[in-house]
Amino acid sequence: MVIIQSNQHIIAHRSNKHIVAQPEDANCQLSDLENCLVDLRLMKGQTQLNCHRIRNSVIVCGKVAGSATIRDSCSCIVVLDVAQLRFEGCARMCAFVSCSSDPVIERSDSMRFASFLQSLACADMTLRPICRVQDFSWLRRQHSPNWSLMDNPDVFQPLWQMLNTNNSNLDCALQYIGKL
């Protein structure tokens, strides 16, 4: 397990790591991660999250007061409570989200969404169900084929239980990527 302690919270160029950020008032940038379990739930006062080139990873955040942008990433599970969320150039992503506005996708496909899980929520979170996503690459009236609501989010329940007991195992967490 890698414990990150820095004011900038830049986590980059890691593979096969369990990364846990410590409580600090800062924003976070993740880039070039592969096969990682990233737990940012302890960070307080986070207003922004930027992710670039994340592959086969699980990212779990607490409350992000501002925006989160995830670019050029694939085969990831993302869990966050955020004001605004945008995916650009992503594929095979599974997002458990509470979002003040409709999440946005652009140049992305095979995106699945579900509401943020009560079991991972902190006391200060206002959970909002996800029912619609804006696809900026799909300009027709019909529903975009690039995203859907998750049929069976309960399949991930053992992952959430593992995260809540702080008994997180990288290999066990990454097996859920295969359920995408």
TrEMBL record:
Entries under PANTHER family matching the protein: TUBULIN FOLDING COFACTOR C, TUBULIN-SPECIFIC CHAPERONE C
BP-aspect Gene Ontology terms: post-chaperonin tubulin folding pathway; tubulin complex assembly
Domain annotation C-CAP/cofactor C-like: ranges: 1-138
Protein name, per record: C-CAP/cofactor C-like domain-containing protein
Cellular component, GO, one term: cytoplasm
Species, as recorded: Coemansia brasiliensis
Family: Belongs to the TBCC family.
